Amino acid sequence: MTAISEKIHVVQGDITRVTVDAIVNAANNGLLGGGGVDGAIHRAGGSEILEECKKIREKQGGCPTGEAVITTAGRLNAKYVIHTVGPVWQGGKHQEAQLLRNCYQNVLQLADQYHVETIAFPNISTGVYHFPKPLAADISAEEVSSYLNEHKQSKINKVLFVCFDEENYRLLLEKTN
Ligand code: AR6
Q: Domain span at residue 46?
């Protein structure tokens, strides 16, 4: 069996250019797209993704913070986009850390339900939501390793952290080595 650390990879780049089963999106509660990685994913993936997001909105009124929903990946080189909503950093006393942990856990659970084997994460909440990058890096590395440790039956065999900026890239490299 592959060691967990060997399943986790850190790269610097644009998440819309990777080839995996599932690309994770850092969305907002409304699920109708936005800036940052969300904008990039919708632009590169095309309107099919937004159409499915609209259907999810009609059914359940969007996506609560810390939770995740799944759609097609449209034109991206992936089968699915898993949209999760990270917390807005408000100083740290509003359960931001726990909510970010929930994002990683809920995304991985949903990925397993859809038999995903390879998945790429952006650095959720570290852009316009202003979550401190060092704490976000700790949380993301911890939650991915603990999930894989606790779910030995999981088919997930590759988790890519796709870091857009140098600081996140450096932090994630430190945390995953
Ligand atoms: N590939 C990988 N990472 C990226 C890319 C990309 N193409 N573009 C940006 N990032 P953000 P948030 C990084 O702001 O903080 C949106 O408007 C970026 O450098 O995209 O969770 C949503 O609609 C940063 O490290 O998401 C929400 O309203 C990380 O992705 C809100 O922003 C997350 O930055 C969510 O804020």
A: 3-176
User: Does the predicted model carry a pTM greater than 0.95?
Assistant: yes
The domain total for the chain is 1
Say how far residue 74 (Cα) sits from the centre of its chain.
17
The three-state DSSP-derived secondary structure of 88-100 is: CCCCCCCCHHHHH
d(CA 39, CA 95): 26
Q: Which mutation among 37, 50, 102 tests ligand 1's pocket best, with the greatest number of atoms within 8 A of CB?
A: 37
What is the ipTM score, two decimals?
0.99
The CATH number of whichever domain residue 110 belongs to comes to: 3.40.220.10
Share of the chain above pLDDT 90, in %: 96
Residue 102 in contact with ligand 1 by CB distance below 6 A: no
Relative to the CA of 168, which ligand 1 atom is closest? 25
